[in-house]
Design brief:
Helix content: 10-25%
Order of helices and strands: HEEEEEEEE
CATH topology: Immunoglobulin-like
Strand content: 35-45%
Number of strands: 8
CATH superfamily: Immunoglobulins
Length: about 130
Amino acid sequence: MKKITILAITIMALFSIAATPIPERVNPVQNASKSADGFSFIRTHRQGKGAVVSWSFSSANASGFSVQRTNEDPNDPYSVWIDVSDIPCNSSRSYKAVDGNPYPGIINYRVVALMNDGSTLTSDISTVKIMAH
């Protein structure tokens, strides 16, 4: 009788683990995305030894943008994001920045919009793979 009880408990534990929902994560491989925070899209692609980040922003309240990259997990709150370039805001709705010589590997990019009131808006993440130089 003890073996049946232990077996039943083990089976119930396995079903409870299997039934636990997996939290939704941002797909870093997605290269074109739409966000409700003022960014219409962010895209990345390789160019030579580097990468190009392009995005569209639809608010007139931005003073500039900071393009950032990480080679770490972009969903980890302890990932280190490095500033690649600062782009001033102009009358255009689309912008582009070039990261000329990043370290090879899978690189995640994001754009932080610096608003006139001092707040910031962060884009979705776009990923590019740079092969060894």
